[in-house]
Amino acid sequence: MFNIVKHRYWYFIFSALVVVPGLVALARYGLPRSIDFTGGTLMELKFEAPQTDVEAKLADVFAAHGFDAAPQVVEAADPATGEKRYQIRSRSLSQVAEAEGSDQTTLKQELYAAIEAAMGKFEEVQFTDVGPSVGAEVTRNAMFAVALAAIGILVYLTFVFRNVPHPIRYGVCAIIAMLHDVLVVVGLASIMGVLYKWEVDALFLTALLTVIGFSVHDTIVVFDRIRENVGRMRGLPFDRVVNHSIIQTLDRSINTQMTAVLTLFAILVFSQGQLRTFVFWLIIGIVSGTYSSIFNAAQLLVVWENREWRHWFGRGRAEASASAA
């Protein structure tokens, strides 16, 4: 039988190599939050005539109407016709209008008139204005949702595994594996924000919560088999019980997640815009969740059961040698 548990520290090192770059990016650059979290205005415009120097022209227009920072402009394509359109993110119109002693409707009309004068006729595809208070509320709710999910998972798993020794360990290890997956996705989001200017929006939060569900689901499958085998394989070392349980559930875990990943990959290939990034985060999270369930959560149970931290840095061996002397 292949000994998966034997190489557990190599799995931990690999996880660290994946997570640490994302943590560094988070510490240095933070998350590139969209207007869903920061507040601001998103408008998507489709011009009748081809455009050049779009960013420079829009920067001049917005500056002339009281905006203290140039808007962010992203070129996209109409999914039906392939025509170019432009997503423009800026400071909230309502915020600027209040500072100028005007109202949002008037400022929007003036802004659109100036854009038309500078760049020609256009069609408004989308317009969203989110105030800073709404953005702050969304951020708080996002953090609360993740924290509530973690607490609920810990309580539920501790209750479900109450008939095995040390049931709280299962809940704690599942939470650690879940946090591993969250950090993989969030860290990569920070890196992608730096490299490709991707932003974290409300759909990203939806993807993150879905990833949490997938991660814990796969972990429970492995833990449930460990619970069954602890009773069946009495007298055997715990690491052998865990290794046998992992091998028994390996095919199911991989096959179940691969069907989801292949389906999502097909959607990724044929989608655009926010849907594509949403599916991308789901794929990354599901792959990470499958890995963490097998190579992190179950391995942490073995480390905890054997209290292996006593032997880290040679401390346990030194104590054993001293007591033998």
The description of the largest β-sheet is: 4 strands, antiparallel
Provide the CATH topology of the largest domain.
Multidrug efflux transporter AcrB transmembrane fold
Q: In percent, how helical is the residue content?
A: 55-70%
Instruction: Please name the CATH architecture of the largest domain.
Output: Up-down Bundle
Kindly state the mean pLDDT as a whole number?
A: 87
- The geometry reads as elongated
**How much of the residues is beta strand, in percent?**
5-15%
Number of helices: 11
The helix-strand sequence is HHEHEEHHEHHHHHH
The poorly predicted ranges are: 320-325
For this entry, what is the oligomeric state of its chains? single chain
Tell me, what is the CATH class of the largest domain?
A: Mainly Alpha
CA-based gyration radius: 26 Å
Spatial separation of the terminal alpha carbons: 38 Å
What is the CATH superfamily label of the largest domain?
Multidrug efflux transporter AcrB transmembrane domain
Strand line-up in the sheet with most strands: 2-3-1-4
Structural class: alpha+beta
Count of individual domains: 2
Number of strands: 4
Summarize, please.
This protein is of the alpha+beta class. It has 11 helices and 4 strands, in the order ααβαββααβαααααα.
Describe what you observe in this structure.
With 325 residues, this protein is an alpha+beta fold. It folds into 2 domains: 5-34 and 134-308, Up-down Bundle (Multidrug efflux transporter AcrB transmembrane fold), CATH 1.20.1640; 40-130, 2-Layer Sandwich (Alpha-Beta Plaits). Helices cover 70% and strands 9% of the residues. The chain is built from 11 helices and 4 strands. It has helices at residues 8-29, 35-38, 54-64, 93-99, 104-119, 132-160, 167-196, 202-232, 238-270, 273-306, 315-324; strands at residues 40-47, 72-77, 84-90, 122-130. Strands 2-3-1-4 form a 4-stranded antiparallel beta sheet. The two termini are 38 Å apart.
